[in-house]
From TrEMBL:
InterPro entries assigned: AAA+_ATPase, ABC_tran_Xtn, ABC_transporter-like_ATP-bd, ABC_transporter-like_CS, ABCF, P-loop_NTPase
Residues covered by the ABC transporter domain: 46-382, 483-735
Bias (Polar residues): 37-47
Membrane association type: Multi-pass membrane protein
UniProt keyword Iron-sulfur, yes or no: no
CDD domains assigned: ABCF_EF-3 (cd03221)
Cellular location(s): Membrane
PANTHER family assigned to the protein according to its UniProt record, in alphabetical order: ATP-BINDING TRANSPORT PROTEIN-RELATED, ATPASE, PUTATIVE (AFU_ORTHOLOGUE AFUA_1G16440)-RELATED
GO cellular component, one term: membrane
UniProt cross-references to Pfam families, sorted A to Z: ABC_tran, ABC_tran_Xtn
Region (Disordered) residue spans: 37-56
Name of protein: P-loop containing nucleoside triphosphate hydrolase protein
């Protein structure tokens, strides 16, 4: 098993104040690295020296970056999978970055298995934690409030005791706990500072250590050694502290907080009957929603949301959009979001942070504005570079001619001219504009002995996900519908109302059908029925006699992860070899995986358990399409992906010549794949084949978006936009009223 630790350093660590909360972050020279150590290797070779090994296993994710967050601004953090976005968020939340004050309150939602494990640990540590109800769990995640309640509990119980010395012991316990925290901060500050500040910090550390020793002595003091004055003074202090804490608790407006928690949980899809259900009895998706609610209910200085739209239906996504927009307008909380949902990022985020090439860059505007600006910059710098290359080619030709003539005729003027032009090429070619966008001036923009030449022109390059290509379908030989449902009814148990009630659906080769609906409406049941995983209670399900069907299940990634952990050495190539059972040789399998963006040693040497979420999606897709299916049924394929890969998948699906039935809450994916709309604002790649690019023989391709509601399919004449507008009206009514 591999353990990872985050190492964070920054340029300003020695000069930052660490005791004052702030909603802003300004850290220069930030370097974040991940150090991996394997328990198995440590056990097998306990005497090996760790120093050189640690160097070999440390990977830098950010180098000399500038992390800058302004108060009250909602940021979207974008970057390819594996570039370190989640690691950066964790380093911020755990305050591993020295420039973030320890007093800053940071609330984080993390989309990792470890975050669920942490929730288990937290609930176990609380009284009755494993049976804590959903509403209670959400209300008890505010650490500051919990600390106040804990102190009130200690002090109030001491006054209820018959022992008159209990208040003395209680106030000393509370003070000792506070001093332990002070010592921790003093140790951290002394470690970070040097010079005169470091000397002062070490003095404060010694003072904190001395105070903690005195506090420990008082805490362990026996009754015989306590004097009457100390008892009276501490008892009075206990009473005053209890009164202060109670006034703080009253100012928190707990009743208003409970009302807000109920509204947030309702907005995220919780029914009233679910609020008293134990948190640990929820499925993984509902637990993540509960954790999201526990973050939204807090009033932190900085709120961090890592893939908050995962496991939300479209109503939940739109409600969260409206809630965060309202929060930005009514509070000064700084918000940092990572999400693969383009529409969500566009609606919520005011500024974009780009993590690329181990650097952080910033753009003021939403994602669409950033992509539009990126294309304009690419065009601008590309034209400048082309013009300069033509100019340099002309000058080099002139230099060659002048040298040739100068040497032939002994003309020194020609040789000097050639030398002068060569110097111009060496020193004056490059960026032709200043940092402010004006004309480049040598005496202003190239000042300093260390600067002898202008910066080279760099044309921005696209950072889209690796292109993907799906294999064409095999020939059907005779026409006919691929699959048809006639009056299909499905219920889980006799006597219960049907989940599906009178479903009518026919799909032919080339058709595109999108299924939308709220969680629990029966979408997954419908696709399982279409995939042959379950049978209808009533009605007919007919399929083409030569139909090949590919089914991507909602929990495909989790199943792959389980296989990876059960067989630690299993690779993508090994798994595919088992699946195809000799139908494809190794070369053909490598070719298939390569078309989906998995190449080289990744497929043959890297175990499945170490693949990223995006790589697992590609592998799952390979397992679905290896036999060239005529119909693809895809249930929530965008979970675990960055939006570059979502773009690559949408483009690959647009070119697929078979039929596609897509279940997703990603509006961009439905619009592009099912409706065939090229989204110019979001710059889908040039290989995309939409409704305007269809060939004549496919002009009759059916493109329908349905909403599954009350067991029936309802066609949306205006596509996903129609459903989105109806949910937006509903979401606005569910928003908490701003205080």
């Amino acid at each position: 098993m591999t353990n990872q630790s985050i190492l964070a350093t920054c340029k300003q660590t020695r000069f930052h104040l660490h005791d004052k909360a702030s909603k802003e972050v300004d850290v220069e020279g930030l370097t974040i690295a991940v150090s991996s150590t394997s328990n198995e290797e440590n056990l097998s070779n306990p005497k090996s020296k760790g120093k050189s090994k640690a160097k070999a296993e440390t990977r830098e994710l950010i180098t000399q970056g500038h992390l800058r967050l302004k108060e009250g601004v909602c940021y979207g953090l974008i970057g390819r999978n594996g570039t370190g976005k989640s690691t950066l968020l964790r380093a911020m939340a755990d305050k591993l970055i020295p420039g973030i004050p320890h007093a800053t309150r940071i609330a984080i939602l993390q989309q990792t298995e470890s975050s669920l494990d942490a929730c288990d640990n937290n609930t176990n540590n609380d009284s009755g934690g494993r049976n804590k109800a959903v509403l209670e769990y959400v209300l008890n995640t505010d650490r500051y409030k919990n600390e106040v309640v804990h102190k009130i509990d200690i002090l109030s119980r001491s006054f209820e005791s018959d022992d008159l010395l209990q208040p003395v012991r209680a106030i000393r316990t509370v003070r000792h706990s506070d001093m332990e925290k002070e010592l921790f901060l003093a140790q951290k500050t002394a470690h970070l500072k040097s010079g005169a500040r470091g000397l002062q910090a070490r003095k404060e550390l010694k003072s904190a250590e001395s105070r903690l020793q005195d506090s420990s002595a008082l805490l362990n003091q026996t009754t015989e050694l306590m004097n009457a004055d100390a008892i009276q003074e501490d008892t009075k202090a206990a009473m005053e502290t209890l009164q202060d804490l109670q006034s703080q608790f009253e100012s928190m407006k707990v009743s208003d907080t409970e009302k807000q928690a109920r509204q947030i949980l309702a907005g995220l899809g919780f029914q009233e009957t679910m609020l008293n259900k134990p948190f640990l009895e929820l499925s993984g998706g509902w637990r993540m929603r509960c954790m999201l609610a526990s973050v939204l209910i807090q009033n932190p200085d900085i709120m961090i949301l890592d893939e908050p739209t995962n496991f939300l239906d479209l109503l939940g996504v739109i409600w969260l959009e409206k809630y965060l927009q309202q929060l930005c307008d009514s509070s000064q909380t700084t918000i940092l979001i990572v999400s693969h949902d383009r529409d969500f990022v566009n609606a919520v985020c005011e500024e974009i942070i780009i993590l690329r090439d181990q650097k952080l860059s910033y753009f003021k505007g939403n994602l669409s504005a950033y992509e539009k600006d990126f294309e304009e910059q690419k065009l601008y710098w590309g034209r400048m570079k082309e013009a300069q290359e033509r100019q340099v080619a002309h000058m080099e030709a002139t230099i060659r001619d002048n040298i040739k003539i100068g040497k032939k005729t002994n003309d020194d003027n020609k040789l000097r001219m050639a030398k002068s032009r060569q110097k111009k090429i060496d020193d004056r070619m490059g960026v032709q504009v200043s940092a402010t966008g004006g004309r480049f001036k040598l005496n202003r923009d190239l000042v300093g002995y260390h600067l002898t030449t202008r910066a080279e022109i760099e044309v921005p390059t696209d950072e889209r996900g690796a292109t993907m290509t799906l294999p064409d379908t095999t020939e059907l030989r005779f026409p006919g519908p691929l699959i048809s449902l006639e009056g299909v009814v499905h219920r889980f148990n006799l006597g219960e109302p049907p989940v599906l009630n009178g479903i009518e659906l026919v799909m032919h080769l080339g058709d595109r059908v999108g299924i939308l609906g709220l969680n629990g409406c029966g979408k997954s049941t419908l696709v399982r029925l279409l995939a042959g995983k379950t049978l209808p209670t009533q009605g007919k399900l007919l399929t083409h006699s030569r139909l090949k069907l590919g089914y991507y299940a909602q929990h495909s990634i989790e199943e792959l992860q389980e296989q990876g952990w059960s067989d630690p050495d299993l690779t993508a190539l090994g798994l595919m070899s088992k699946d195809v059972n000799g139908s494809l040789n190794e070369g053909e399998l490598r070719g298939l995986l390569s078309t989906l963006g998995l190449q080289g040693r990744v497929v043959s040497d890297v175990p499945i358990r170490r693949l990223s979420g995006g790589q697992l999606v590609r592998l799952s897709l390979a397992r679905v399409v290896w036999n060239s299916p005529h119909l693809l049924i895809l249930d929530e394929i965008t979970t675990h992906l960055d939006f570059h890969t979502v773009t690559a998948i949408s483009s690959a699906l647009s070119r697929f010549n078979g039929a596609i039935l897509l279940v997703s809450h990603d509006r961009f994916l439905i619009r592009s794949v099912v409706e065939g709309k090229r989204d110019w604002e979001q710059n889908i790649d040039e290989d995309f084949e939409g409704i305007d690019d269809e060939q004549t023989e496919l002009s009759g391709r059916r493109r329908d978006v349905y909403v599954l509601k009350a067991g029936k399919l309802h066609v949306q004449e205006n596509g996903v936009e129609q459903f989105e507008q109806s949910l937006a009206r509903r979401a606005r009514k569910m928003l908490p009223v701003p205080g």
